[in-house]
Every structure is written in C-alpha cells, then in structure tokens.
C-alpha cells in the first residue's frame, strides 16, 4: 500500500523529513501528522504557527487548529486559543469526544489544561518585536495590518490506507481579538475521507471560508478526478464566482492527496509546499499561477534548497 505526506509551505520540510520514515515503518497516519505539525508549532521562528506566532491587534497570540480522521470522520478543532502552543494536539484529543469537539477561546484553553497540556506564554521576544515594528509601519502607512499569515496544513496517507488531515495557524497578523479564519472550519480549511483523499487550504481565511473548497476537492477526487484536476477546477471555479460576486479575490492555495498517494495543488499566488511519498523523498516545490490562471509547479534548484536549509540552520543556532 502507498503512503505519503503533503504539507503547505516550505517551513514543513524538516518536519516532513524527520517523520516520513515512521510511515514506512507503518506508523499511524494520525501520529505522523501530529508529529509533523507539532514540530513546526514548536519552532519559535516560524512566526505564523504555534509558539512565537503572529500576535493579534492587542499583542496576544491566539491559535486555531483542527484534526480530522478520514476513516471515522472524527473531527476536533480549536479556535482563538491562548497559552497552548500545540493546537493540533488539542484538536486531535478533541476528535475523540462525541460532543463538544470544537472549542474556542477560554473553553479551548480550559479543556487543554484539564487534559494535561502545558499552559505557557506564546509571545516570544521576537514575535513581540515584530508586533511593535508592525504598529509603527502601519501608522506610517508602509504596510497594512494584515500582511503576513501562513497556515500549515497537512494530509497524510499511511500504508494501511488510513488518511488524516490537519491544520494549525495563528491567523492574520494583528487580527481583531477573537477573529477566526478558515483553518479550523471543517470542509473549508480541511477535509479528508480515506475512501477518496484529503485536502487543506491556506491563504485569506475570510475569502476561503466563502467556499467549502477542501470538501469540494475531496468530492471531485471521489468522483474520479486526479488530485491536480480536482484542485485546479475547484480553485478556478470558485475564483471566477467570487470575483463576479465580490469584485476581488484574496490569496488562496490548496493542497491534496488521494488514497493512492497521488497529489495535487492549486494556487493564485506564489506558494511553496512539501511532498514525500513511498516513491519520492521529501521535496520542496514552488507553485505559481500563470497568465491563463493555471497552476504551474516548479522544483527549485538545489542551490535554492541549500540556501533555504542553511537559513533554517542559522535560525536554529
């Protein structure tokens, strides 16, 4: 049986590299996904996820995250949670609950505390410095408050055919207190069915949540479309509809993998993602939208990859 991982953004590369071997040894898809996302959440210099995440307008780090099991349809999600750096783990724990499986704010933190998750300050010196700098730049009109936001979304297929999907994000930089994006919303930010495949989304949550895009991609794969076709058709159709109705479309990037380990991506911005499968070592790709509105996938040069890895190593030291 095939196995594989696809994850949004190049920040997931090291975590995928460190954990893909567990799938080869028949680790459960859920454990692998939690390990991948947690590793990204725990690294303070990944500023849009977990510990050291992007603060809201009041300087507080509020996190969203979700987990879905494609074999049972169990879903767990948290949103606007403070002081717990691993929303993916809290969401995975919540997915085993028959009721109250989506918690927000103080309710999410209370659940996490009662279930043994560490309560700690998530605003690092670095994220606070970025917050103070952003305030000054907004005042001078150099940037807008909401520039900068990346969700880590992951889909995993294990050798037993078990599929899961998960997301984690600190949301928009300088968002309003209590703001929730698409990442924790089932069908929008994520969806998975082990009988067909899984998908996750990253980008402007306020636009992504207007379409149930992750679910739609999975539905199209179930109907027989290959992942690239399913992702591209979903993005193209929704972009066209949203532009007609609203007059503008924010950044959107979608990744997916089917039950055979085949993967797909669609985007309307420059976007990096990571893939690893039974037949393919962990690889960073760059996706771009061409003039015809289609997604073009590029494998960057080895020098580009080496420069990125060196940069990450320096950030760790």
Automatic annotation (TrEMBL):
<feature type="active site" description="Nucleophile">
    <location>
        <position position="151"/>
    </location>
</feature>
<keyword id="KW-0378">Hydrolase</keyword>
<dbReference type="GO" id="GO:0005737">
    <property type="term" value="C:cytoplasm"/>
</dbReference>
<feature type="binding site">
    <location>
        <begin position="179"/>
        <end position="182"/>
    </location>
    <ligand>
        <name>substrate</name>
    </ligand>
</feature>
<protein>
    <submittedName>
        <fullName>N(4)-(Beta-N-acetylglucosaminyl)-L-asparaginase</fullName>
        <ecNumber>3.5.1.26</ecNumber>
    </submittedName>
</protein>
<dbReference type="InterPro" id="IPR000246">
    <property type="entry name" value="Peptidase_T2"/>
</dbReference>
<dbReference type="Pfam" id="PF01112">
    <property type="entry name" value="Asparaginase_2"/>
</dbReference>
<feature type="site" description="Cleavage; by autolysis">
    <location>
        <begin position="150"/>
        <end position="151"/>
    </location>
</feature>
<feature type="binding site">
    <location>
        <begin position="202"/>
        <end position="205"/>
    </location>
    <ligand>
        <name>substrate</name>
    </ligand>
</feature>
<dbReference type="GO" id="GO:0003948">
    <property type="term" value="F:N4-(beta-N-acetylglucosaminyl)-L-asparaginase activity"/>
</dbReference>
<dbReference type="InterPro" id="IPR029055">
    <property type="entry name" value="Ntn_hydrolases_N"/>
</dbReference>
